[in-house]
Amino acid sequence: MMNSKENYNKIISVFIVLIASTIVFRPVCTLLIILFTIYNLVHFKYLKWPNNVWKYVCLLSLPLIFEILFFWNNSSVTLGFKSLEKYASLFVFSFFILGNYQQLSFFKILNQYRYLFTFIWVILLLRFLVFDYDLVHKYINGIHLAEMGYKFAESFGNHAPAINMHVAFLVITNVYFLLRKRTFKNLLINIFLLFVSLFSLLVLNTRISLAVAILCSLIVSLQYFIKQFKTSKIVKLSIGFVAIISGILFISFESNPYMKEKYSSVTFAYMDKVGKLDEIPNPEVVVFNAFVTRLSIWKSSYELALEQPLIGYGSADGKREVVDYFQRTNQQFLTKYAFPVHNQILDFFVKFGFLGAIMGIVYMLVPIVIGFKSKNVILFCFGIIFFISNLFDDFLIRFDGIVFFGIWICLGTAFYLRNKNSIKSELLD
Hints:
Order of helices and strands: HHHHHHHHHHHHHHHHHHHHHH
Main location: membrane
Keywords: Ligase, Membrane, Transmembrane, Transmembrane helix
Largest sheet: none
Shape: globular
Radius of gyration: 23 Å
Subcellular location: Membrane
GO cellular component, one term: membrane
Number of helices: 22
Low-confidence stretches: 425-429
Domain O-antigen ligase-related: 192-359
Number of strands: 0
Helix content: over 70%
Number of domains: 1
Strand content: under 5%
């Protein structure tokens, strides 16, 4: 029996919240995306797109379009389809979410998402505490703290650097709603939600996620203060906010001695050894997480891309070509661990040539521009997270990164189009 339009709208919102909250569980999230697609196809008559929808669908699906355009450049049809399939969700989200742009409420979905996703993190933390108590006990006693975030992520089948962006966004979302809750009960609930998300971020303990979480929390807070208060009070509140953040970081660094080492000597160790990591004694121990390793990978990836800058090497062959280049230039440490590019612009440069690099820059700027134009501070901060994170990693080679970006930028674009069309309607009236 076909649902009414009202029920359809509610169910679509539920689907979106569930998909956004379960990205860290790929099988569950994949099933939800399939069901979301089928449900929209069954209720196709309820979809209503803006007049220029294909312009936005193409913009939001740029990596998928490049996968199709450069498909012929893959050495393996099977691997080419496997790579292309990962980006199919970008079309699904852009087509169906923009088809519901008039009904979907960005901030209502965001609010429901943060409750569910924070609840999931509570369960995961408690599960880790119960089933991996020996590890927890070891970390409490300051032993092997460098592995803590990785072991926690592995406990539910994930990788810490792959999910840090999600948790940073959750922190910023909780900061946004904390500032806007008035009652004492809501204040306590939002403090708890923020505490859980911030604690999860510190457990994962990845440098870029912590940096962007602090930066964007400051932006969200400053935007709120400017709207609500006079200049003198803004200065006082900003100083207070910075003091709170500094206090939290001080406690975190004091309780976790490895953080001091990680954010200083480990990060910037052996900076004179770019491209020469094998000259370092025991590189696995001293530079696995150092910036010099990324610089070495970027240097090699850039050199490789320059050898074939017009068409690249194909999405199915990009990583293999990078690893082969490590071996060809006698970089044994990088070859052994077969590192990916760790920079999304360079990754697209290797795969699709210089047009791919341009596409990567444009694509990574989309949420920042739309967030700014729509005056949506959360979307703007999401864009900053996405851009900065992808300068140091390549999240768009992973299912979780693609879905995470796709669903929120499509929701943000729907928010922008809804507001834009509302203004036009008011002017016509």
